[in-house]
Write a structure and sequence with these properties.
One of its GO terms (cellular component) is peroxisomal membrane. InterPro entries: Pmp4. This is PXMP4 protein. The chain folds into two domains: 102 residues, no CATH class; 51 residues, no CATH class. Helix content is 77%, strand content 0%. The termini are far apart.
Length: 213
């Protein structure tokens, strides 16, 4: 037992020594990026999938658990692959040109996005839409910082909120098929199911009655 413990400690010392080597930093950063992508993807997707599945999806308990596990795995895997690809391409470009420039990030992310998130499925679609909203906010702030557009005299957020809600409810009422299925489900629950009830049970306690009364 003592010999096994000594071997393990020696292995850990060797691993720690390797991790301190600056020449391997880029490669090790790619590996840790893969790890962080997998962990973060699981942390983000698992609770979201749990809530959305049990709120809006039908099926047996086992089918729901399988759906949650599949969504979590897909999100975790894709994010891990993307971080691995992005950081690997970033390191390769920097090594080839001898320095890091802003275009490297854009090109590496474009290639990673094409390869990893190019498949049009519900998970990738949600991630892209999440990023798109943040990009629009970021570009608007950048345009103000750079002086491309003037600093607003008043906070434009109330107007933005009005336009966003006005547009999404108009689309839901008259062009519903253009919205993502999960958003359709949420809005159906909020705006259509609230129009239907039969008694106190499905007015206050439940959304819909499950009996045949």
């Amino acid at each position: 037992m003592a010999g096994g413990g000594d071997s393990l400690r020696a292995l850990l010392r060797a691993a720690n020594a390797l991790l301190q080597q600056r020449r391997y930093h880029a490669a090790l950063a790619v590996i840790k990026g893969f790890r962080n992508g997998a962990v973060y993807g699981a942390k983000i997707r698992a609770p979201h999938a749990l809530v959305m599945t049990f709120l809006f999806k039908s099926g047996s308990f086992r089918e729901k658990l399988k759906s949650i596990a599949q969504a979590t795995y897909t999100h975790s895997r894709n994010l891990a692959y993307f971080v691995f690809t992005y950081k690997g391409l970033l390191a390769a470009q920097s090594r080839l040109q001898g320095k890091k420039i802003p275009f490297h990030s854009f090109l590496a992310a474009c290639i990673g996005g094409w390869l990893v998130f190019g498949d049009n499925n519900p998970i990738n679609s949600q991630i892209i839409m999440y990023l798109l909203s943040r990009i629009l906010f970021g570009l608007a702030r950048l345009a103000v910082e750079k002086g491309y557009i003037p600093q607003p005299r008043q906070d434009p957020f109330p107007l933005l909120a009005a336009l966003v809600w006005g547009t999404v409810l108009w689309l839901f009422e008259y062009h519903r098929d253009t919205l993502q299925p999960s958003l359709q489900s949420s809005m159906t629950y909020l705006y259509e199911d609230s129009e239907v009830w039969h008694d106190v049970s499905d007015f206050l306690v439940y959304n819909k009655r499950t009996d045949s009364k």
